[in-house]
Amino acid sequence: MYISGSAQGEVPTNNGQGTKENLLAPKILIATTVRWFPTPRLVMALARAGFYVEAVCPRKHPLQKTSVIHKIHSYDGFVPTVSFSDAIAASAPDLVVPGDEYAVQCLRKVYDRAAGDTAEPIRRLIEKSLGPSESFRILASRTAVMQLAREESIRVPRTEVIRNVSDLRRCSEEFLFPFVLKADGTSSGEGVRIVRTIEEAKRGFRTLRAPLSAVRVVKRVLVDQEREFVLPTLLRQGHQVNAQELVDGTDATSMAACWRGDVLARIHFEVVKKQYKNGPASVMRRMELPEMDLAISRVVKRLNLSGFHGFDFLIEKGSGNPFLVEVNPRPTQVGHLTLGAGRDLPAALYAAVANTPVAEAPPITQNDTIALFPQEWVRNPSSMFLRSAYHDIPWEEPELIRAGTRQSRGWGFWSRGRKWATLLLPDRDSNEP
């Protein structure tokens, strides 16, 4: 492997698997804007499945601690769409996979801005990787997704766009408290508020609609080294906010590998523990619910989706009925888990792209409960689940383990900061104890 671009130099390496490189294998480009630990886990699974993997990502990304990426392209957080366009042109991949929510938005902008001789190849690549451009607008809006799901007879909570305080008051009368406010284009719980009074709703609406504060932008730039939030803040670009009825139930998360409107493989989990309130899961338990399968297949078929997509559900208490609450047009943090027939997403996608039979890996565990590394260890180093569950540590990549533990120290610092912020700013969500 070598890292391309004058800003990052050139570093030779091998694929770390002890196997001969297959230069004729389908090439996949991972495009990501944040240093999210699940991304290198997915990359490792994609390489095991047979893909030739390249990436475009920020400097010091944990992706660079894996031994399976053949090339890492230069990335500039001030102009992420330019970085993505340049990486696509240099890589000429068979598929491009966004690693996070902002990367999805950037790929859509690359699609819209493509011009000249390269426009059609780039557009075809992005549609091949994600689905037709007509689905972009729908997936970009939580309300539009919920409306589509309702048309497909999928259980969903009522969801409305909130444009102003008048809309907020109307929803507070129709939905009844408590209900949920969600901002489009956000992830990891940052754009979610559960509100119980009209005053909480007003504060939450103002916070979610506004661009990132100057303090948070400075933190993102100096600590996280994520520059892409500077320009939207300077331009005062905010988010569309939605109100959604609150379903009294437990969280469940699913991820599917899709190809031209068909579901190739999928996995479902009940969320046992979260890293923090309204945040991503740190402990999950495998589950099967046919109605969730049906909901996913209907959405995938209706939007003619390809690639990896995440689906969030709430399992209603008492009835056990699943309510679809969100669709993420990107991988989630469970995509690397190989759990048997029909539950190996990278292998299923590889088979579709390469037009070969599916060669699934053996299940990584027979334990239904899985503790994600380093998420659960960061949440609680004394957690019982680190002993009773399958602790998903990437033992084959020691440098990645070290990167995860180093990165987690920063997570812990900022998680504690969230608790102090809750005391000072009541509309912010607090961590779980």
Number of helices in the DSSP assignment: 15
Sequence of strands across the biggest β-sheet: 14-13-10-11-12-15-16
How does CATH name the architecture of the largest domain? 2-Layer Sandwich
Q: What proportion strand?
A: 15-25%
The poorly predicted ranges are 1-20, 411-433
Largest sheet: 7 strands, mixed
End-to-end span in angstroms?
43 Å
State mean pLDDT (0 to 100 scale): 85
Percentage of helical residues? 25-40%
Derived from helix and strand composition plus strand pairing, the structural class reads alpha/beta
Radius of gyration: 21 Å
Tally of individual domains: 4
Shape: globular
For this structure, what is the CATH homologous superfamily of the largest domain?
A: ATP-grasp fold, B domain
Outline of this structure?
The chain has helices spanning 38-49, 80-91, 101-113, 119-130, 133-139, 142-151, 165-175, 198-209, 214-222, 230-234, 290-303, 345-354, 375-379, 385-388, 398-424; strands at residues 2-3, 27-31, 52-56, 69-73, 95-98, 159-162, 179-183, 192-195, 241-245, 249-259, 262-274, 281-286, 307-316, 322-328, 369-372, 390-392.
